[in-house]
Each structure stands twice: as C-alpha cells, then as structure tokens.
Write a structure and sequence with these properties.
This protein is an alpha/beta fold. It has 2 domains: 13-108 and 199-230, D-Maltodextrin-Binding Protein, domain 2; 110-198, Periplasmic binding protein-like II (D-Maltodextrin-Binding Protein, domain 2), CATH 3.40.190.10. The chain is 32% helix and 29% strand. The strands form 2 sheets. A 6-stranded mixed beta sheet has the order 2-3-1-4-11-5, with helices on both faces. The longest helix has 18 residues, at 213-230. It starts with 16 loop residues before the first strand and ends with a helix. 34% of the residues are buried.
C-alpha cells in the first residue's frame, strides 16, 4: 500500500482517527466509496478468515474497524470511533445527539415499513388502529411513529427472522427493512404502511469534529465529493 498523509497526518499512532464500517451487505456497497475516497485497507481486511477487528490503511493516521451495522452508531457516539458509515435506520433508532451525519452516501437504500399477513391486510385499515402489537428490531422508531398519531404500540424486540412472528402467533404485524419485498411475499406478508426511507450516511462524532476540525472536516469533504460523483 502507498501511504497517504493528510494535513495534520503526522499525529502519533494513538492519535489516529478510527473509521467504523458495517459488516455484511452494506460493506460491499461501501467498499468502492472507500476506494474512491483514497482509503485502501491492509490485505487482512478483505480476508474472510481473518480474526482481526482493527485494520491499518494506506492513510497513516486512519484505521478501520469492522463491526455489526447496529453497532457503528454506538462506537461513534461514545467516541470509540471518530467516523463511521451507518444506516439512517440505526441513527433513527438510537437518536444519539453525539452523532453528526453530514453526508448521505446513497447506498444501502431500502425502506422501513409495517407489514402483516396478506389474509388480514385486505380488510384492515391502519388509520383505525388504536393499540397494536408489533415485532421489530426498531422499537424506539416504531413507538415514536405510532405515538405521533395516538396509537399505542406494544413492541416485541427481535434481532432477526422477523417474518416468522406473524406466522407463529408472536404478533400480527412487524416493522422491518424492506428492499424488493421478496422476503415478505415469500412469507405471506404485505406492506401496509411506510415509516421511513433508509440509506447509509457518513457520520462523525461531534466532539471529535470540534477538537480535530481540520482532519475530520477533510473526510467529510472527501466523502461528500465521492457521494456526489457516485450519484
């Protein structure tokens, strides 16, 4: 790898900026943006058998950490990472005031929606709900969404396999991310209400931006330009 040194990049190793990136599908979409921003991780980053969690890059004062998508926001909010790539669904769920999300990267596009079994959807009217039980990975977003129109939402927190909840009687409805809708259809569910459009954002820790404005600001500018060119 060729080292790149940004302005202020003569910082000591323990003064490196940390960029948190999500594992899984979003990382495959984010990888070209990292490359376009001039970030090339060490080879172990691309090795599926590697047990490393922190990776050096060709930018001498920037390391990457690879964490679960739901954990990116927490690492950035609490200052363990200074920068990150996080879905707007996660930002909505946690609503951390410590996070500033200046750039929509235009990747990971999907939507957060309410779904229920097709056999009850035909005669159901969400506008008439007053109390509902919902299985979801997003209890805070769900409660706020329904509370805004006076509906009490009893949320059952699940971390996956959401589509099983109606089929097994855990709840009649779910709130989950939807892209093509194929998984819903395959499990006999249909969308009945839209909550929010979702995409991935470049995020920064506000305290880090305040104490290292030039270094953090450079990355905001870089990713803003990368997102603009990719649009």
């Amino acid at each position: 790898m060729v080292d790149i040194r940004l302005v202020g990049g003569d910082a000591a190793a323990n003064d490196k900026l940390i960029l948190a990136v999500p594992k899984g599908r979003i990382l495959s979409e984010a990888a070209p943006l990292l490359h376009a921003a001039g970030i090339e991780p060490e080879p172990a980053f691309h090795d599926p058998d590697s047990r490393l969690l922190r990776f050096a890059t060709n930018v001498v004062d920037l390391d990457l950490i690879r964490v679960r998508s739901f954990d990116v926001a927490t690492f950035v909010a609490f200052g363990a990472a200074h920068l990150g790539i996080a879905g707007s669904d996660v930002l909505l769920e946690f609503d951390y005031p410590e996070i500033y999300a200046p750039v929509d990267l235009g990747i990971g596009k999907c939507r957060l929606a309410v779904a229920e079994p097709a056999e009850i959807a035909g005669g159901d009217d969400p506008r008439r709900w007053s109390h509902i039980r919902i299985a979801t990975k997003y209890p805070e977003v769900t409660r706020r969404h329904f509370a805004a129109r006076g509906v009490q939402a009893e949320c059952i927190k699940l971390n996956g396999a959401m589509e099983l909840a109606p089929n097994l009687g855990l709840s009649h409805r779910i709130v989950d991310l939807v892209a093509s809708g194929k998984t819903l259809r395959d499990n006999g569910l249909v969308e009945v209400e839209h909550i929010a459009d979702v995409s991935s954002r470049f995020v920064v820790n506000r305290a880090a931006f305040k104490t290292r404005p030039e270094r953090v600001g450079q990355w905001i500018d870089r990713f803003r330009e990368v997102a603009r060119r990719a649009a």
